[in-house]
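Bug #77: duplicate submission created two jobs. Keeping one. Sequence:
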Amino acid sequence: MISKKMEKALNEQIAMEGYASFLYLSMASWCDKAGMMGSKDFMRRQSEEERMHMLKIFDYISEVDGHALSPAIPQPAHDFVSIKKVFEEVYTHEQKVTNSIHKLVDLAYKEEDYTTLHFLQWYVAEQKEEEALMRTILDRIKIIGDGPQSLYFIDKEIQDINVAAKKAEAAEAGA
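Kept job's structure:
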């Protein structure tokens, strides 16, 4: 059984993951409007991944006899200045999520809730990967530049990341 304090904290994380899913979906729409199909596909995939993160916590709360809550999610921004700013915002948001996961881990330690602590280890590893990916994308944007003539090359880099991710998912599914 999960404590009410941990249940509340996990429900707050559900809301954060849900917001991330909607934010990335909004960014996908902006990328689509800007003609950046590789970036649109990337943000759609990220949106779906964040939704999966949300549902994973939702299901976990139920598994440990808690009450998972469907969150009210504020509307995210829908207009962005540049693709560089989009990825800077994603990176900042991922850092916020990482901090929140670390606080959940800390709470699980304090409450001696080893089941939740074990569950959260997946999120710790996932956030490390998410932040590293966003830093890599921002590094590539810095190298390419973010002027109008550079957008094609940025979008191509993002599309290459999409292709690599799909190959990795297919290999994982086949293993």
